[in-house]
């Protein structure tokens, strides 16, 4: 089985690739090749057993031809994207990665089918950004109303995945991911990075200034939980789920004060006194007024949230190491 992961050197991509490589299989099928694609992989070897790393521009069709030559795709995890703040600042780059590259990957499924091959399973990492403001409870019937370029492009990707699946060119599943914690410190354009920073900094014994007030409510999931859900999507019986292909993943909804209390339970009670709240109106307006989520279709399909906020905090630093104090 040949599996491709795009954005494979990113936060979620590295964890997903590591899980796949360690298992050596996806569902009940053994992996014969795991192709990882990103702009770069540092000093990691280009090939390592079944793992093949390819550095380059995802929207470069010639590069993809070279990377995937002679190896039909059985499954694609399409994680690569240009996120929120960066997408707003650089529309051309966001369009190239979030739209053009997504369409190019889907076209590879079509080309594979037209020469007699099987349609690859296509797992598209969408985002809750498709909804826009989350000030009213979100259900399976909530209409997307994106308010940022990133959300609009993710919604377009969902529609393309549905259409290519309808035509039998891919077997698609789109997952609307919430915030994923805890991202390592990096300039990624993630406007919600403070949710990762607060866990990492308090776990390390350092003070933290929260840009949202104690009562501000938001959504997030741990990295291990999101990887579990991506892997589940790849083996999901879509036909047994009324042909539904787009899911808003279950996630934790919590206030900043509740998050701090959970961090204190895991990393020491003094974490509470090391937090100072200095709300940023723009940040709180965008991320601090999230209403409850009722993801009934996803729950019925076997997707799961973290068991508790404490479990989210415990899982948030898995795969990136526990930061030392200092």
UniProtKB/TrEMBL annotation:
Keywords: Carbohydrate metabolism, NADP. Pfam families: Epimerase. Gene3D superfamilies: NAD(P)-binding Rossmann-like Domain, UDP-galactose 4-epimerase, domain 1. The keyword NADP applies. Residues 3-209 form the NAD-dependent epimerase/dehydratase domain. The keyword NADP applies. PANTHER family: ADP-L-GLYCERO-D-MANNO-HEPTOSE-6-EPIMERASE, NUCLEOSIDE-DIPHOSPHATE-SUGAR EPIMERASE. This is NAD-dependent epimerase/dehydratase family protein. It comes from Pseudaquabacterium terrae.
